[in-house]
Design a protein that fits this description.
Elements lengths: L2 H9 L6 H7 L11 H22 L5 H12 L1 H10 L10 H5 L6 H38 L9 H11 L6 E8 L6 E7 L7 E5 L2 H18 L2
Amino acid sequence: MDSRKQFLKIIEYTFNDIALLDSALTHRSAASNNNERLEFLGDSVLGLVISTELYKRFSDIDEGVLSRLRASLVKGETLAEQAKEINLGEYIQLGGGELKSGGFRRASILADAFEAVIGAIYLDGGIKAATKFILSQFQTRLNKVNPGEVSKDPKTRLQEYLQARSLPLPVYTVISIEGESHQQTFTVKGQADVIAHEIKGTGKSRRYAEQQVAQKILDLLSNDK
């Protein structure tokens, strides 16, 4: 059994256009026809499906809690863990450099490839097929979701900490944006009166980078106690 057939058996989906799967499993270090565009698409499809499922499951919680629940399910760390559960790293095509450096174990590569597979399934079989795959992959995590235990995101926690002490809110500023439009890396700096120096964070969105900054500030405040 070749590797593609093994992977199809694992994900329980048969492609009409197998080229979509090949693209989804190809990292940019291996070829120009890679999974970046599919990752971009899969990210949106994943967000839609998880949002819809949470909306259906929890009819009595507000938008803020729903947003935090979704964020906990679709964050990079969770996607990388999910990718490992289906041994995705074994099937990703990598360039020589990434292969030697263990790229098949890198969380960012695994998370992006997982989203690319979702994008490929969506293009091949539509939203119904993508929804079936996503819910089968996230069923255990969805069943464990507890709205009462979901933590607030770092920016919200930092804001509440400062407001409780009548202190000015932090200022976040984007200082650089690198990469192509569909694969950008944002670098953000944060300034707050409660710390003596600027804090920087990076991520594939401005929001993610700002959350990193806020978390670093919270960690500093915790260490000062």
